[in-house]
Amino acid sequence: MATKRYLIVGAGMTAHAAAQGIRELDAEGTITMIGAEAHPPYARPPLSKALWKGQPEESVWLAPVAGLKLLSQRRAVAIDRNAHRVTDDRGESHPYDKLLLATGGSPRRLPFGGDRILYFRTLDDFRRLRRSGRHAVVIGGGFIGSEIAAALAIDGREVTMVFPEDGICARAFPKDLSAFVTGYYREKGVQVLAGDVPSAITESGAVRLKSGRELPAEVIVAGIGIAPETQLAEGAGLTVRDGIVVDEQLRTSDPDIFAAGDVARFRSAVLDNEMRVEHEDNANTMGRLAGQGMTGAAVAYRHVPMFYSDLFDLGYEAVGEIDSRLETVADWKVPFREGVVYYLRESRVRGVLLWNTWGQVDHARALLAEPGPHRDLKGQLPR
Fold this sequence. Notes:
Largest sheet: 5 strands, parallel
Shape: globular
Radius of gyration: 22 Å
Mean pLDDT: 96
Strand order of the largest sheet: 3-2-1-7-19
């Protein structure tokens, strides 16, 4: 039987997990990986978490995969589905029997500032930020913005946050919890300017706000979300809808092409909705299953991804839909310090925020899978 040819576009955590998944079931097939960065695959979460608390940079590298051929500093530019080939930006063509698109996403950018704004995403971004000056302005108060601001403050920088919402992580946390976290950041020395947005970068490098205020800065970091990298899929005529649409087996509209990770849009059997998830657990779990599926194994992605964050000495794990627009029920052991927040739609739990509460992710997943309605949530999960 001919040796199977696997091609992976992308060289992040999803791509690495896929290569591992392939090798678990196929020791002989060739695996080629095309990545835009100069580095081999590495773990991304430590860039805004552990590396700022003393974990060595070498710890981010992921274990080599046997027989993997990595083509770094290249971008795939076209897929010929009929010929089963991908062309890269050097003009080279790469054959495949099964192809995985693990292209991730690109940071959303502001319409001004150019390279003076650091859009934090990669290891090179971390290195640049680590070498930067003392006065930092962080644009964005969501998942990445909150982590970066805390990391820089822990590192002894003078940090100003600016974002349009009323409080830190206001789109995710209930209003009272967001207000507490915002106050907590201020206690830690972070200047938090909620309800304002940047409008320009001045010649001196200051951030000018819509309110007219100017913020001097030696480094400006923006964490305002990512847009899925779907251009390659669109050019190949695959189904795209805020991400590359995949079925339960993680196949695109072409059965020989799979997609996984940040770029993949899938239907959650548990939450009964279509979603795209930009977190580590999803990247690793989906990537591994996609790799196994590429070998011909029968797989089904029914996982409910979790995500986590560290904000100074506060921390949380979360599962499902963490959206402040939903109805929320809080079960605090210590108000805003330790407890569980449940997110409900039509009396059914759709998300669980475990606030300084550990070891309960699987219990939270089981609760999401229950048919509901959920009426008395106090004490549902150990706090």
